[in-house]
Amino acid sequence: MFSWCADPSAISGLTWLSCFLTTGTHINFYWSFVTVLSVIAITAPLALLFGFGGAVAARSHVAPLSWLGRGYIAAVRGVPDIVYFLFFVIALDQGIEWTNRLFVCDDLSAPVWVGTEFRVCPEAKVPLATAAPAVQRAYNFGLAVFTFALVFGAFAANVLHGAMTAVPRAQLETAEAYGMLPRQVFRRVLVPQMWIYALPGLSNLWLILIKATPLLFLLGIQDIVYWAREIGGAKLPGNNPYPHGDLRLWYFLALLVFYLAFTRVSEIVLGRLTRRLAHGQATLGGDAQRKAAA
Hints:
The chain has helices at 13-20, 24-59, 63-77, 81-104, 133-166, 169-177, 182-212, 224-232, 248-278, 284-293; strands at residues 113-114, 117-118. The chain is mainly α. Helix 2 packs parallel to helix 5, helix 2 (24-59) runs antiparallel to helix 8 and helix 4 crosses helix 5 (133-166).
């Protein structure tokens, strides 16, 4: 906060605005952008990893592994996302505490469920009640990232499974005719070729992931939408040194610009990546590039 902000009642105009925009709540609002971007940056590769594993499992000739991969894709895609964000996080949290209870609690005969309340000994709570606020936030952040990755990983698995199927069978047979082992065909031919087919679907998932970040408030994380609503709401003079009317419209307009700019930059980057992957490929995009060069 600036030195001239000591007495908010004595300032006005741009000076008042500079003080208002540097309050502690606004600093939290600015940091929430970092939180959202961090969730996206960590979730995207983790979801892609889950998706790749699910796609490979679904294609497996081992029946139980194939059932597991297909079941994962069907179970997540067939249930509304909000159910996972509300139910799965609670179940995961209780599962972690129940497992921790087996190792740290002295009295394992005590019931875990008392009515509708889940109870474990204080030592089994994760995180501990005495943990620092930063630890609490890190734990919630980890649960949020894992849940986002699990949900979007199933959609990525479906996209990658379809992309693997779209790779021309003749290319795989040619590699096999040259004496490549199945794992070599998979690593050297199938996986490099599938990305051009998968990228359109993965691009849509990336944009959906960006738009889904407001669901973070369901997981106990104070995201940018939460702070925009809290700060923009009308404040009474007795509760705030910078009283103002309802400014939520302006804060949500700022979020609109942020999301539109983010998605536009993403579209540009993804478009360039698509053109790069299509270069020399036997696809419509590759044919268009070859004709343009000719």
